[in-house]
Specification:
Structural class: alpha/beta
CATH architecture: 3-Layer(aba) Sandwich
Strand content: 15-25%
Largest sheet: 7 strands, mixed
Distance between the termini: 33 Å
Amino acid sequence: MSRHVLRLCVPVLFGGLAFGQHTIPHQNLAPFVPSPQPVVERMLEAAEVKPGETVYDLGCGDGRIVITAAQKFAANGVGVELSSRLVRQALNRIHELGLEKSVRIVQGDLLDVDISGADVVTLYLETLSNDKLRPKLEKSLKPGARVVSYEFKVRGWTPRLVEKVFAYNREHHIYVYRMGAVKK
């Protein structure tokens, strides 16, 4: 899906979800668009994922980021996904690969899941969704935890690193933030 088309979809997904203090439960904060595998690997490298750390992918889709974190970085992975279809797909892949001890998938709203145990959080959400998630990240993550956002910045934070990756005939952007070093 092109970036232009993705932006056209976003207002439809976000329109009418929040009214003052009331929000509709289980918000779909982004459409599922698979991240290219070279970008996934570079995101985890840029986050400096170490063996034994815990990587959370918020809006994990088919689980490719947490699966890659376990396979290539010996990390533990927790994926959070709203779609039951994508959760089943991710769980099937985890089972096929024998990664049940190091990767788990939580079906639910990423705004409701406890992320305090994360060393790294990965995101592929639109800027408005990052805006909604930012207070939770600031409140929940320990100093030194890294947040890696694919394509969309976290407004109000200064990235520690910005990477450009060329994959599948286009340039992709990765923004890496370190908690304790971001502006609040």
